[in-house]
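tl;dr need the bound structure. longer version: we got a ligand (magnesium ion) that a collaborator sent over and nobodys looked at where it sits. i said id run it. heres the input, straight from their email, havent touched it
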Amino acid sequence: MENLLIVGSQWGDEGKGKFVDIFTDHYDVVVRYQGGHNAGHTIIINGEKYVLHLIPSGILRPEKACVIGNGVVVDPVALVEEIDLLRERNISVDGRLFISDRAHLILPYHRAVERMDEGGRGHHAIGTTLRGIGPAYADKYFRCGIRVGEVCDEDNLRIRCQHFQDQKAWFWGDALQQVIPTEEWASFYEASRIIKPFVTDISMLIHQWHTAGKRFLMEGAQGTMLDIDHGTYPFVTSSNATAGGAVSGLGVSPHFIDRIVGIMKAYTTRVGSGPFPTELQDATGRHLQEQGAEFGASTGRPRRCGWLDLFQMKYSCRINGFHGLIMTKLDVLDGLDSVRICVGYQLDGRRLEGVPQSAEVMGRVEPVWQDMPGWQGRTREVRSFAELPTEAVDYIRFIEDFLQTEISLISTGPDRGATLENPSARNITGFLRRP
Ligand code: GDP
Ligand code: IMO
Ligand code: MG
């Protein structure tokens, strides 16, 4: 199996965690390259549920190595909490977890700044996870960030943290100092000490392992429409969640990536604010939310739900160059009389050629719909393509035709086993068989 990259093709929460777990069997190393603990990836193994935020899902398989790349922002306190939760479940990270010395730290003042900034935006708030992600990336690019490698010298780390906190306080005023309890700094330094043994030069390590023949699975967080450049800016996260992010976020050549697979839900969801052309604010929307248990894995917020937006998916396929797609949550559409697919955007009576740059314009577009019959038979837990209702197969074929991209695998429930292979898939195959 060649090095494989998994990317969210919509607004996140497509079911990446489930498929990283399924694919992990075929790889030696699982890596994360962007985002932080804003992500929430749910994995169900033998009926037991695990939710991972920062550590790659490969950690659940004892023999796999897990890497956090330089493109990630790391909150040491959140990381240590995640490590402890895993230890409570007898999963050790020792000798298996490697964190880039070039990744940036999320500091207590990042969370404080974000609370103040989001509050100040009023009804223009982005609806972030309030975990300090945006401010940490902003400092990285403003060249006043502190990198993970700095935890190796605590005296110096303390001096730098104090310096930048003073600078922030100068900008934000006394209010900033008041909202950071001293205990937050104490926990930060303690956690920084704990993560020290995991810190290393990741690009070099990956290179050495690659030369030795190890195989890599790259796990994206968030999704294409949350990408800082290609998403619905400013209602996005602060990193490159698209395929390109893997290269800069790990320190590897584009040649390193052999295959790219996009995860897409059979419908669309988004958490937080921002335009959502196919959103359903009616009984069908509530039906999707209930059937799909659409509540955020990180913040517990209800996810907004709507029909599948294929016009946006076409854009996502272009940006990422998917070799294949995996469609999740097909079962959530079971029992509907008809299903709708957005195949274009219209603005003031004119068809748009592409996804608009402006979130304001995106908020005004009207979807062009393709209606299709729903299916009364069940797809839930169905494990073979031949057993899918004809209308569900038509739905899949329509999407493949429109996107000119194969749907390699289909997911019909949260469990590992509730997955089936598309017999006509050519690019992404063989993953349901154990190596
Ligand atoms: P991620 O962030 O992309 O890893 O996705 P999340 O874990 O945040 O959200 C996906 C949710 O859908 C999780 O609760 C999964 O257990 C669940 N899930 C994944 N695939 C399926 C599926 O095919 N059907 C159903 N009903 N649930 C699924
Ligand atoms: P996974 O990896 C869905 C959303 C937030 C908010 C915006 C910016 O589980 O798919 P941030 O805290 O990142 O600055 O918030 O991005 N968001 C996600 N939505 N899934 C995620 O991750 C997300 N991570 C961030 O809700 O709208
Ligand atoms: Mg998620």
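gonna send this back to them w/ a short note. The chain has three domains: 4-99+201-256, 104-195, 264-421.
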